[in-house]
Amino acid sequence: MDKFISVGKILNFHGIKGEAKVGYSKNRQDFFMGLDSVYVKTGPEYKELIIDSCRPNKSFLLVKFNGIDSIDQILEYKGLLLFVKEDTIRENLDEDEFLIDELVGMGVLDASSGENLGFVVGVSNNGATDLLSVKTKNKKISLIPFVKAIVPNVDIKNKKIMINNIEGLLE
């Protein structure tokens, strides 16, 4: 069974010919513009929408879907999330990029001593960088900048993240 990951949302219509205003994941404009199709969830099923055209406009994209040619037709999809298959995302990840659901639950270890420091409970972004939310052994949540200098190694296979535990990082 395919797993789907959200990559955008139909915000509204644009014009009278069925174009959609689409919001998309931060820094993912090029990825979205390279897609041939996306999926919407209608009830328990995912329905494929073929992309005829896609162009940037301010902070969103204008997308024309095959077979949707009027305001009435696109309004049926207003507010729905757009998905792609997980494999499509994986094919487009850079070497040092990961899916959030891969990171959540991973153990966090000190890179120099190998000591278990806690585990990842979430990932967020403060506008400048991604942050790992780590629940430490003393049950506190610490935010760790997800940058190479602090997080030198992520081992997806063994579910371990090695960090350079600098003083004051985990409190």
Lay out the secondary structure:
Blueprint: E1 4-14, E2 19-24, H1 29-33, E3 37-42, E4 45-57, E5 60-65, H2 71-75, E6 81-85, H3 86-91, H4 100-103, E7 107-110, E8 116-125, E9 130-136, E10 141-145, E11 153-155, E12 160-163
Mean pLDDT: 88
Helix content, binned percent:
10-25%
CATH architecture of the largest domain: Beta Barrel
Largest sheet: 6 strands, antiparallel
SS elements, strand count: 12
CATH fold-level assignment of the largest domain: Elongation Factor Tu (Ef-tu), domain 3
Q: What is the overall silhouette?
A: elongated
Question: Unreliable stretches, pLDDT < 50, 5 or more residues?
Answer: none
End-to-end Cα distance, whole Å, is: 41 Å
SSE ordering = EEHEEEHEHHEEEEEE
The helix-and-strand class reads mainly beta
Report on this model:
The chain is mainly β and 171 residues long. The chain folds into two domains: 4-91, RimM (Elongation Factor Tu (Ef-tu), domain 3); 100-163, SH3 type barrels. It is built from four helices and twelve strands, in the order ββαβββαβααββββββ. The protein has a six-stranded antiparallel β-sheet. Strands 10-9-8-7-12-11 form a six-stranded mixed β-sheet, with no helix packed on it. Strand 11 and strand 12 (160-163) form a beta hairpin. The relative contact order is 0.15. The model has no long low-confidence stretch (mean pLDDT 88).
